[in-house]
Amino acid sequence: MTTSRLRRRVDDVSVVVVTYDALPWIDRCLASVEGYERVVVDNGSTDGTLDLVRERHPEVRIVERENRGLAAGWNAGIAATAHPFVFLLNADAWLAEPGSLDTLVDVAERHPRAAVVGPRLRFPDGRLQRSVRAFPTPWRIATEYLFLRKLAPRSQALNAFYAGGFDHAHERHADFVMGAAMLVRRAAIDEVGLLDEDFFLFSEETDWCYRFARAGWNVLFTPQAEVVHVSGAVHGGRMFRENVRGLLRFVLKHQGPRAAERARRVLIAGCLLRAPRDRQFLDIARWLRSGRAPELL
Q: Which of 5, 60, 109, 249 is deepest in the core (most CB within 10 A)?
């Protein structure tokens, strides 16, 4: 890639990273996008994350704020930038190759109605991380939480929630892509609006992509760019309740109270199935039983 072409892409995209005790990964994350405008929105780290950023990446702009969730952090970062594209990157993720971000912008420019372009994700050991999802419905939630997808892992009927059979080797449209790494077009944001901050940690990108789709924009997956993602590193799987809450909020918001009630009952059953191996699931099932979806949320 020529210097002039690289400069054009640097002028096209801003990188936003939201941090919360991300010390083990933030240096590699920010180093992988060095040269672009970078904004770190910190949600109250106490592990030295910001000290490292200031020492190793002094040109990075830091926005410190109370922890109001990932969506709110992304919104703050987006508001602090002005380039035509914004690249939302998890603190535990980094570009696999130096030119990956430029490639994402190239793909977006070839598809002017793409609001979001998601790269192919890989675990640190090189394994494919399946990053394409289908919009949640009570049935799709049931196929995951009641383990129905294990009966036919690649079928669309029993594994639509995780886009069973989706070909991660070719560029394709998707319902939504995991928010670990997303290139987002500012013109689409200006039309549809920022992320819904009622989603604290999970399903915020699901809701956003759904709103983009409703407004006539596309979500695109491309294997031409790759990002390495540790996956769950920051929360360590400890926030399963927020995952459940996000799913329930999405269904209530976009499909109504009846669908949300069906989803709530499925989630109760799914948590009870998991309770023997982890008490947190029993606690979540009790919480789900304590009221209907509008009351819980």
A: 249
Please give the C-alpha separations between residue 288 and each of 198, 248, 267, 282, in angstroms, as whole numbers: 18, 10, 8, 10
The pTM is what? Answer: 0.90
Dihedral angle computed from the Cα positions of residues 173, 174, 176 and 182, in that order, rounded to the nearest 10 degrees: -40
Least confident segment among 76-80, 104-108, 205-209, 238-242: 238-242
CA distance 235 to 55: 25
To the nearest whole percent, how much of the chain has pLDDT over 90? 77
Q: What is the CATH number of domain 3-131+168-229?
A: 3.90.550.10
Q: Is the pLDDT of residue 237 over 70?
A: no
Segments making up each domain of the chain, as ranges: 3-131+168-229, 240-296
| One-letter amino acid of 88 | L
